[in-house]
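REQUEST FORM: STRUCTURE PREDICTION
Request ID: SP-0412
Submitted by: Lab K.M.
Chain count: 1
Length (residues): 1450
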Amino acid sequence: MKGEEKTSETVQTADTERKNGAGVEDSGACKGNLPNPAVHEAAAPGRGDRIRPGTRGGTEIRVLKRNMKRNGSRGCVTRKNRFGSRERDWLKGDPQRGCVCLYGATEPPQLPAPSAPAQANATPQPDLKLVLCSTSTTVEELCAQRDCQQGLYLQLHGDLLRRLDPAERPLQMVYDYLSAMGYEDALRIQREAAHSDLSCMIRFHSERPVNADQQERTLLKGVFSVRKGKTQLHKWAERQVILCGTCLIVASVKDSLTGKMHILPLVGGKVEEVKRRQHCLMFSSAGPQAQTYFVNFDTLADYQRWHRQASKVVSQTISLVDLSCYSLEEVPEYLFYSQDITHLNLRHNYMTLEGPGGLLNLPRFSQLKSLNLSHNRLGVFPESVCEILTLTELNLSCNGLHTVPAGISNLQSLQTLSLDGNHLSSLPEELGGLAQLSGLGLSFNDFPQVPAVLERLAAVDKLAMAGNRVETLLLCGLAKMAHIKSIDLRLNGLRCVKSETMEPVKQLTHLDVRDNHLAALDLSSACSLESLHCQRNQMGALTLSGFALRTIHASHNRLTTVNIYPVPNQLTHMDLSWNLLEYLPDWVCDSRKIELLDVSHNLLSELPARLLSSLSLRKLLAGSNRLASLPDLLDHVPLEALDLQHNKLAELPDSFFLKALNLKYLNVSANALETIPPSSQSEESLSTLQELYLTGNNLNENCGALLVGHQNLRVLHIAYNQLLSFPASKLSKLEMLEELNLSGNKLKTIPSTVSSCKRLHTLIAHSNHISVFPEVLNLPEIKLVDVSCNELIEILLPESLPATLQELDLTGNSNLILEHKTLNLFSHITTLKLDQKPSMTPAGDTTATSTLWDHGYAEMSGQRNKLCVSVLAVDRFGDSSEAAYGIFDGDRNEEVPRLLQCTMGDVLTEELQHSSIDSVYMGNTFLTSHRKLGVAGQKLGASALLCYIHHETSEPGGYFFLTVANVGTCQAVLCRDGQPLPLSKVFSLEQSMEEMERVKSAKAIITEDMKVSGVTCCSRLLGCSYLSPWVLPKPWVRTEPLCSQDDFLILGNRALFQKVSYEEAVRTVQAVRDPRAAAKKLCTLAQSYGCRDNVGAAVVALHISEDSCTCEPPMTTTVAPPPAPPPEGKTSVPTPVPTPVPISVPPTGDAATSFSSSGIASEFSSETSASEVGSEAGSTASDEHPSNPAARPERRCSLHPTAITNAAANTGGGPGGPGGGGPGPGGNHPALFQRQPSCAAFSSNHSDNGLDSDDETPLEGVISNGSKLEVEVDIHCCAFQIRSGGAPDHSHEKDFRKNSDYPNGKVRRQNSVVVSTTNGCLLAVCGREISDLKKSPSTSSLFGKKLSNGSVVVPQDSHNLIEVALEAPKKKSGYFAAPAQQDPEDQLVVPPSLEQDVREQLRLQSQVVPGPPPPSTPPAPREPEWDHPQTTVPGIPVTNLQQEVYDTAL
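STATUS: Completed
RESULT:
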């Protein structure tokens, strides 16, 4: 009975709650709180709702218990199996409400394979609860409602766990996290917060998860049989045994810790297995008076666990305890028994002051010398640390400290103090009393100047102040700090280095001022300077003292002169690359010890002869200059590496190889060489050359004989020359050859003697005329063979292939046919690239869009022999009139690029359903892809670039637009008018000062190699979520309209554009034209120019020409003022046109695939989203003529910017009707409709309305082309139904545009009603006249399409009026090739009721004067002001009246 009463009470309470649902929604809309303070726990199926009263009266929290999949990919808000309708309605009432996922302590198990049967004894899923709350709900409220004693724990990126403070708000923390990622819309943030797979980035636990490995490494304890000493006199006894820190602790009484504790130090001791007893270990301490304990364990698991941990302790040479990254709030209390601890590492925890093991008790360690408390979120300097008088090393980096207490003076033994990554702006004077302090780290703080207290710290020899705010460095002030020898002031915003007196600064030996804003640098007074780093400034002049100078790093400046006096005879390394030097100073040749000189990317026209004859120079990099010749060398110069690529060299000295006998590396690619000097004058050669790069010259086959003497040659790149053949006898002598690149020549065959190169592992010979597969499959070490883009006919294979073969590329050989036997032999190859067989085109589909663009791509692995670059290429994306391309670079991981390659296209398709703003749908595509990486994206990341070609339906005309989004270092370059147009932004710390400042302000540690926390040089990536908020996934987005001057698009990763400039990349593709061969050439050039990393390139050939013209005649024309010129450095982007009279089109399917490949378009008006049109009703069209017309400017494509006027359709056809050509107050209104246009060609003898074309006035919009006419035709999709409803609210969409940080963001609409015309004849169909058209025999083909087999398609509401056009001849290059005489079925007979209207429209065509828009950009839209009366329809409010117009053309 009790159970029944309880059940009935629960059901009754639940019913009462359901009745109050409306009140819940209404009351929550304001404050986000539910009126009845109760916790609703939706139990397992079959059980009633259990309701408990809460302890707080202001907020109600709903807890939904679900056995949810761990890796669910959909949000909780939209899934009915998670939330009921009441919950969803409550969430929709206020975006400040949401869902928090609370996980239990049990780690979720791995999900079994779908095919695996369910096991009854499988580990249950974790207890996951979905808690509905608001952003104002605190942890205290959640815990009070759920009787949670431990509180809540936050876990970021699957890493550390932090106990939340009672006042913290979990849902607000999730929202803040998503906002920092890049989400801007409050509703989208609400949906994202409910995704269960967001837990890979941010997760809340109701209990502290148990980590067995962490417990093992922190503390081991148990009750075991113990015997003391090695003799048999002692008996075995049950005792509590603890292994913590560096000691073994044995209690004197069983199950009690109150008695005496026996401590056995293990560092330097022994732990051995006792063979006489099972699962027994012997623990011995070090020293002459060593003690021994025998411990007998109950199980093998315990035995192995204790043995493993104790072995680590005894192997240490110092008493070190490493408790880093354990999410500790305090150290284990047993650790204080280890009084021999000297080094304690507590980095990456959440240590607190209070508690038995808190920071206040750390002074109990009597011998502690080193303490690491970095990354503990302390916020305040723990003064209890100042009481550990034995400390010699203290690390408090990255703790958010603002001040240092005066008590720091107590640590008189302190030698090293690290305070990096805090908010310090000053230091106490008491710090100057630490006489032994020799290392002080102050980097990445907020110091505006060098602290004066450093003058008293005589033992400090290095000033580490990178990443502060020091703008001026006074050398005279450094003279007072005679003990400072090394200064690190990089990333400070340093603008000036002053020397107010002539007094020399004698003590300074090392200075690092890279990545600042220095315009000039004069360090002539620093007479003892040995090393200088000043890269990435804006220096035009550099003056140094050469007395002790050893190394100079001054790349990426604007140097035109470098003055050093006296001659730096100690100089060994000098980097002056990427400057503006036109000549080398004389002192460079006079320097006696210089070994490495880098002067690449300058303006040098010659190299001094004395330089190449230097007896010390070993490596000279002089590429990308203007060198026309090379001076002769002295005999036996020590030069080992010479890089002269990208110069104007026509020849090398004849004696070059005879004298440079020590030369091992030579790169003379991208020059004008026609021959190379001989290796020796006799058959015997002393050459030691190992790597030779000759790519991109004018060499012929005669150079093969000159290479024979280089018998030590391992790498030979001779691609893109004029080789007709390669001498077979010469190739056989290169027995040491490992890598051979012969691509881009005119070879017809590879000599069979290549089989003599037994060490050859890479053969690249694409883009030749090779017809016979080279005989390389017998080589024992062959790994990669690339013979793509050749003329292969067949492949002769050995009986078995070498097991080392990893990659074989046979693409681009159109005549090659592989048998099944051959494919079976290739089955073990890791990467086999073959051409896909052409697929059959579905009936009714068109291939016209495929002629608008085509692509080719190439991926080449680097020295790591691991391909970490992936390419996404979809020529027919979405509705087949769009395309998507992307490239993803994982740097050192291949998992993330592969995941992005497989998922990002689908994510883009999904995001296009939710938003039409380019910055929103592209940004959300990246953010969603970042989330979908899951566990892989926690520690791994990748640069990503995504390009989307589409119609911008919110813009005037049927432009094709290119939207580009990227993170990281992948780049896109568009060739326009033969010149490169970069479209992406490089998110690298070296190249983006804005990103550098953002990362600095977030207190990230940037290492000297310019990497965030020493991990990546990128400030934005997909993945690497553990580096948040320093590294973000929010992309840069840019949209560019395409025109006929756009030839192709190049996508490449960092390695490509580091070696190949934009200009050279464009020239390269222009010379090749074939996209696949062009992509191959780009990668080959990058490797020949010295690239050692993975390189990837994709080339998209664009054919946006006259054949793809997308002009549209206007309804009426107005002269629109030209848009304001864009700001310098930014692209002018048109603004979407608001449409005050939306046209309702019922959805015909998935919005992403609603565009038909036959040219049928269904597009929304520019202010109506897909969901709004599907749910809101439109008004009926009418025959009545409103007095005030609404005009719009003409829509023209980028190919034909000059406006051409045509008559427009309206419901009544009168001159004063909406959209009519007659004048009226509304004649200056902008465009009303967007469209997806097409073009067609018709006979010039007859027009479609049955009138003789000779009797007609020449029609605007009709272009004469010989015997045919090119006429603008628009095909669209409308449903024959009239629906009513209120006007949609677009304020939310406008807020996106206002708040977006993308200055060139544009609105893209999926569906918009199209205005169509053919040969000047427009048919406007009112809702009342549809039935008349269906009854008319002349128009029956519009509603029941007659097929070639005699059957008729049943008319559907979603069918297009123009669907019968599929029976016309197929499209060719964007046009319909119509017959000279029309088929009677193709003629359109105008019903008598509309004949007068049509004639009136034709008459109006010759009366309207066109207003030409600007030649290159669409007309600037303006906000329309409607003042004409609207037609009233019964049952529909006047303010919500909409027009539904059906326009068609045949």
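NOTES: The first strand starts at residue 38 and ends at 42.
Reviewed by: T.R.
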